[in-house]
Design brief:
The structure holds two protein chains of two kinds. Chain A is an all-alpha fold. Chain A has a single domain, classed as Orthogonal Bundle (Non-ribosomal Peptide Synthetase Peptidyl Carrier Protein, Chain A). Chain A has four helices and no strands. In chain A, helix 1 crosses helix 4. Chain B is of the alpha+beta class. Chain B has a domain of 126 residues: Orthogonal Bundle (Butyryl-Coa Dehydrogenase, subunit A, domain 1). In chain B, helix 4 runs antiparallel to helix 5. Classes of the chains: A mainly alpha, B alpha+beta. Chains A and B meet through helix 1 and helix 2 of A and helix 12 of B.
Chain lengths: 102, 584
Amino acid sequence: MSVPATDPTANTEATAPTAESLSSWLADRIALYLKRSPSEIEPTVPLAEYGLDSVAALSLCGDIEEDFDLVLEPTVAWDYPTIEALAGHLVEELQSTEGGSR
Amino acid sequence: MLSEPAVDPAAHEAQESAVQARVAELESRFGDPDDPANPLGTAGLLAADEAGELPAAGERLLDDIVLNAEFVPGEFGGRLDRLDSLARVMRQVFRRDVALGLGYGITSFMAAANVWTAGSEEQRRRLAELLLGGSKVSVAYHELAHGNDFVRNEFRADPVAGGFRLHGRKEVINNADRADAFALFGRTDDSPGSRSHSVLLAERDQLDADRFKVLPRYTAVGVRGCRLSGLDFTDCPVPDSALVGARGQGVELALRSFQITRSAVPGMAIGALDSSLRTVVRFAVGRRLYRRSVMEIPHASATLTGAFLDLLTCDSLALVGTRAVHLLPDETSVYAAAVKYLVPKMLTDTMYDLSIVLGARFYVREGEFGIFQKHVRDLPVLSLGHAGSAACQATIIPQLSRLARRAWFSGDEAPRSLFRPREPLPGGIPFDRLALASGRDSLSASLVAAADDLPSGSPEELAVQGLVLRMLDELRQLQEDSLNLSPQDRTALAGPASFALADRYTVVLAAASVLGVWRGARDGDDPFLADPAWAAAALHRLARRLGQRPADLPPGCEGRVHEEVLRRFHERRSYDLYDTPLSG
């Protein structure tokens, strides 16, 4: 089984992803790791409480990089441990890379 | 192609001869292993093992030459400048006795790596002082209930005014009863996840003796002389100054600094296989069955040749692992895990193969071949301690799909120097440049790049070329399989297929290492390493390990390797990449 390679929200050419669209992308993706439904994952509860292990957190980091063409610290999911925090951080990262010379 | 580091020939010579001198001194001080009067001969080592002690003469010798200086960076007065040299020097100890290598010192190095990576200037200075003064330092990470899942560790280091309060147990800790300091991994925050632990360096003298005790010693199958016990703390205070790095940085620090020890320790243990191979060659040369020597029996001779090739393969991967820390620090997370996974596994497998040639002698605990069963029991500790095999695979698994997408068949190849055993390295270990994950793989890129540039004159060279192409097929298959991994198969609870994928990848990395070492040696002064025969035969074994059915090797290929097995036996040279003169 393979995961969807791209997601419409990831298309930075058209509309930059918002915290909201990123949250829903993250919930969908994390749900796959945890074998849960996205609606079960509260945006403010630390992902580790749902059992997202450190190996999965690193894999998630790779997924984000791939779909959003970002380079992240592998520890990003540790420092932004909830969907809300992670989405907020990603918005900032995307804005700063957009402003920078890519 | 990356630029090669500038080489000053005089500095090169000085580095190499300094290491050679340390290796030679250890070898000569350990003396003739077969001399029954030598307390550090095999008879003495076996007696200490039977008594469950480290050989006292061995500990005195290592104190005397200040072995601990090998674990202390040059800037703090020690001799630790290069990781490949550390492995090479320590191999001389492991060649004689794994328990002595581990029990005297290596756990001190594991503890120290954390402090060199993230400790304050004051902590580093103090630790150097302790080690250079002959102290042991315990690495107290392990809790039996949690194995390698150390994010779930329960040992508490509760932040309190002015410091921390330690509470709980650390189990199966080497030298807990006699270490002067402990590197402790404890929970400093109740939240789940990977920012809730910290590393603390506590000195025994500064702890309230009523608030901690040493747990009873464990008895183990192997390394019987190691003093494995544990620590039990009851609300024991330590000052703020004990914290190594930042609070909450423990998991990250462990993952970073253990890349250094995971790269280096398996290369040390190769010494035990080296001695075991020599023991079995001696048996095969001396014993007569079916009116010929065991060495003339094709199965026995092929097993010994195969063991030598496996040793060279392990050493090639270990060499690349240690040199990558200097040359490719951001890629080391994967290579360190590959070394720590594959080398101990191959060493253990090869010991089993050798035991078949030794036959019933393998079951005898004393006498001429008694040391063999000791190495058989001692070596598996390498696969168990300090990240088990599965934990190493779990380090690789989440990186596979990223490497498959970004790195394989596209990146730059590694500098040639990565593969050259005696070549100088930029000084000092770059503790601060190790990354937790990388999107590059210069080692496999070297395999890919080499494919277009291999000589094809002799049958042996053609064999290497054919085997390299098979390895590239394997890498292509790995790429496809890695891209198809489901999310669940990229977690710690991934299915067996993910672990098998990580296993195959490490074999490809070993093949890339063998190929690199041979290519690097072609213009060198070691005629055996320059010969394609060993590379072809080693790659052939790796291909079969992957389940491939490569074409038969050209006639003469294994014969050339077999000759070398005998030459090194009769001339008393080591069986690793360094072809080192041995005592006796």
